[in-house]
Design brief:
It comes from Corallococcus aberystwythensis. The protein is mostly beta strands. Helix content is about 0%, strand content about 55%. It contains no helices and 50 strands. The strands form 13 sheets. Strands 4, 6, 8, 10, 11, 14 and 19 form a seven-stranded mixed sheet that branches. Strands 13-12-15-18-17 form a five-stranded antiparallel sheet, with no helix packed on it.
């Protein structure tokens, strides 16, 4: 190797100093490969060592050599002879090991410094973890959230990602072993920093039983002890806590049904006769009013917590006048008092509510005057009137509502559905004095669907909460999609909880026509139909787990 430096030269007796000019190549360090893939290794277990050679590929010595790995601590230099000085043309060696800490791909850079430029080799490796599902209840399955596998029996799969969420099916409420962290929709979230074993220890279906019927139910109501009563176009049926029939009444032209707190069933027929049945379906008493009108909307009926029955009827004739008459019947079916409500020439009943102990009664109605043509009615107003337990009016307020529902604390809601797909609604909530607490609408185009039924569940809920049910509208066409139901909030605000959807087994649409709590534990009994209201193909009744109202699925 020729080295040039500065030196003095005497020329004509004068000393001159020349600058040195060098054409020597710069020092160069090279690694024997530009990239290397360690392949797949189980998380937490080291790979074999991989040898890398560094060569000083220049005629100059390198005074200081250093090697490092940047980008990931899963690659580690396990041995190294490339330290400091490396003579021209000589080589040094280092060994690298890959130990994945999480599932998934890792990458880093092996860097060699000491020459004029920094050289590097790209390192890659993939970690995997075994995910073993050790057990599951019969009839269930486990799905990987990334759709990589499904287990219908105990199974073991290699997973190449840092996290994985498992879901149990069919739809329900799973209980996982301790290896799982909670995840939305009842999932089991695993951080794959090692191979994991999990068990699906228990599973509860979303609904505990289902009864199919030829006709969709009009009303479901609790009878106590987990039993329920169902009203449909064919009559009234009592079911036990397992959905088995206890008794039935094959009635026709039944208008309304109410259940007392001790499980007696009152039926209001279209001829205005009220019959009450005991818990075994036997007649207790029958009440027939002196005068009634079959014109206009059907009557209303509720029961207070003391066992009294309140009946709201249209009385009179459209040719002369129609008033709304409230009749209060004792536990023995004896009329204790009555009141007439009239706000125009024709006043039809629209809704009926009571404070739980009967201290106040709320009557909602719609008022019309007769028009110039026969049978023509001119709308006047919708209203609600608060009455004392003796029938005296406390106040009357006008409101632009349609159907209404009352809680046992005297609060009231009115709902207007949004008829454009996928459907939605506007809700107004009033306190017991008729003052509006809030008025809110679901986001445009966000659903969950059209409202077909709503209720304040009676007897079991001292703090009123609102249950809604209905159906989705399919985009572009006004046909039924899935049925749905959910808890929509309380007197503080509209606050939709998790929505439970109901699919038709034939894909022809579904809807929820009635729902309530079945017991103090808040199992939800839901009735509805498949098809649509104009062309129902079948009815159903289901008893849902209480978590259906609170747990996202």
């Amino acid at each position: 190797m020729v080295r040039k430096s500065l030196f003095p030269v005497l020329l004509l007796g004068a000393p001159l100093l020349f600058g040195a000019c060098s054409d020597e190549p710069a020092a160069e360090l090279i690694i024997d490969r530009k990239s290397f893939d360690f392949g797949e290794w189980e998380v937490g277990k080291p790979s074999g060592e991989q040898l890398f050679t560094v060569r000083n590929n220049s005629p100059q010595d390198v005074e200081s050599v250093s090697v490092s790995i940047e980008g990931s601590d899963t690659f580690v230099i396990s041995s190294n002879t490339c330290e400091k000085y490396l003579a021209a043309g000589l080589e040094c060696e280092l060994r690298v090991r890959f130990t994945p800490r999480l599932g998934g791909a890792s990458s880093a850079r092996l860097k060699v410094a000491g020459a004029s430029s920094v050289l590097q080799t790209e390192l890659q490796g993939t970690g995997f973890a075994w995910v073993e599902v050790t057990s599951m209840p019969p009839g269930t399955y486990v799905d990987a959230g990334d759709d990589s596998f499904t287990c219908t029996q105990p199974c073991r799969h290699a997973v190449r990602k840092a996290e994985l969420t498992l879901y149990a099916g069919p739809e329900g409420f799973p209980t996982w072993s301790k290896a799982c962290a909670g995840a939305p929709r009842g999932g089991c979230q695993l951080r794959l920093d090692a191979s994991k074993s999990v068990a699906l220890e228990a599973w509860s279906p979303v609904y505990q039983w289902e009864v199919r019927r030829s006709s969709p139910p009009v009303l479901v109501a609790p009878l106590g002890d987990g039993r329920i009563v169902v009203q449909d176009a064919l009559g009234v049926t009592a079911l036990d806590g397992a959905g088995q029939e206890r008794w039935s009444l094959p009635l026709t032209a039944t208008a309304k049904l109410a259940v007392t707190s001790d499980g007696f069933v009152s039926l209001l027929r279209y001829d205005a006769t009220v019959t009450q049945y005991d818990r075994d379906g036997r007649v207790r008493w029958t009440y027939t009013p002196e005068v009634f009108s079959s014109a206009g909307p059907a009557g209303q009926m509720v029961a207070d917590v003391l066992g009294n029955t309140y009946v709201l009827l249209a009385q009179g004739s459209n040719d002369t006048a129609v008033v709304t008459k409230l009749v209060v019947l004792s536990r023995e079916g004896v009329e204790t008092w009555s009141a007439v409500v009239s706000e125009a020439q024709i006043t039809y009943p629209l809704g009926l509510g009571i404070v739980g102990n009967g201290s106040f009664v709320y009557v909602a109605g719609t008022a019309y005057n007769r028009g110039p043509a026969p049978q023509e009615l001119v709308f006047v107003k919708n209203f609600v009137r608060k009455l004392t337990s003796a029938g005296a009016a406390v106040w009357t307020k006008e409101r632009p509502w349609g159907d209404v529902a009352f809680s046992l604390t005297g609060e009231m809601i009115s709902v207007i559905s949004i008829g454009s797909p996928p459907g939605g609604f506007r809700v107004s909530w009033m306190d017991s004095e008729g003052n509006e607490l809030w008025n809110s609408q679901t986001p445009q185009g966000k659903g969950p669907g059209v409202v077909d039924t709503y209720a304040f569940p009676a007897h079991f809920d001292p703090v009123p909460r609102l249950l809604f049910g209905g159906h989705e509208l399919r985009p572009g066409i006004e046909t039924y999609g899935r049925g749905w139901f959910g808890d929509m909030g309380d007197s503080s605000k509209l606050s939709p909880g998790p929505i439970t959807y109901i699919d038709s087994p034939s894909g022809n649409g579904a809807w929820v026509s009635t729902l309530t709590y079945a017991d103090p534990a808040r199992h939800v009994v839901v009735g509805g139909g498949f098809g649509d209201r104009a062309n129902p193909t079948e009815g159903f009744i289901r008893l849902y787990d209480p978590r259906a109202l609170t747990t996202e699925r």
